[in-house]
Amino acid sequence: TDFGYQQVPVAEKQARVRAVFESVASNYDLMNDLMSAGTHRLWKRFTLSQTGLRPGQRALDVAGGTGDLSAGMCKQVGENGLVVLTDINAAMLAEGRDAMTDRGFVNNVRFSLANAERLPFPDNSFDCVTIGFGLRNVTDKAAALRSMQRVLKPGGQLLILEFSHPVVPGLKPLYDAYSFSVLPWLGKVVARDEDSYRYLAESIRKFPKQPELIEMMQAAGLENCKYHNLTGGIVALHRGYRF
Ligand code: SAM
Hints:
Blueprint (H helix, E strand, L loop, with lengths): L9 H15 L3 H9 L2 H11 L8 E5 L5 H10 L4 E6 L2 H13 L6 E5 L12 E7 L8 H11 E12 L7 H21 L2 H13 L3 H10 L3 E8 L4 E7 L2
Parallel strand pairs: 1-2, 1-4, 2-3, 4-5
Antiparallel strand pairs: 5-7, 6-7
Helix pairs in contact: 1-8, 3-4, 7-8
Bound molecules: S-adenosylmethionine.
S-adenosylmethionine (SAM) binds next to helix 1 and helix 4.
């Protein structure tokens, strides 16, 4: 199919996103390493360096997948803190729980099957909320931003790590060539799933540009919003506070 290239009705989008992540759940980590040549680890390390988390605090990892950000935050909050890893997809959440257990994080992590648009936590719950490569897949991004803002404690911050739009001259054509030919090919030979990785490339193109996401964050009530480009804007880390 060529569903990545046509307008997809909202109700259908969620089902498709679910199918994509069910299909990729088991080889998700391998594909991440191959697709980004390992660079996703650096993007995540930089994100973790910005959480400001201290021992005993609480963090929420939305769309946490296999838990790379959760694991880093578990170290930061320590045994007396808490990290809640959420994902909308049960298969991914199960992968996440296994991966966290393998890394030795058991006592200070909880798992919750949840939609980013309607987080099942009280207001003012978390010192830091992260969403890594997840907002792109959310159907109602404004609702997700409001929901993540709501569960932040006053003074807490939201960190959004997401594919973005290259800002370095000459990078865009190379990046387009990569994502529209190399990526689906990798998806085909490694994950036997060309369509899911075609969807990935298309969803990155449609994601709001850096300044536009800042405006959406502000509209959701986040303050002092800023972004930092990584790898020439292929990825960006957006930050906003709740005051
Ligand atoms: N954060 C992890 C990382 O950086 O490796 C996983 C990212 S993975 C590309 C995106 C995840 O978002 C998938 O596990 C998917 O199930 C989840 N997801 C998609 N839509 C969601 C939604 N509306 N609410 C919560 N999670 C969602």
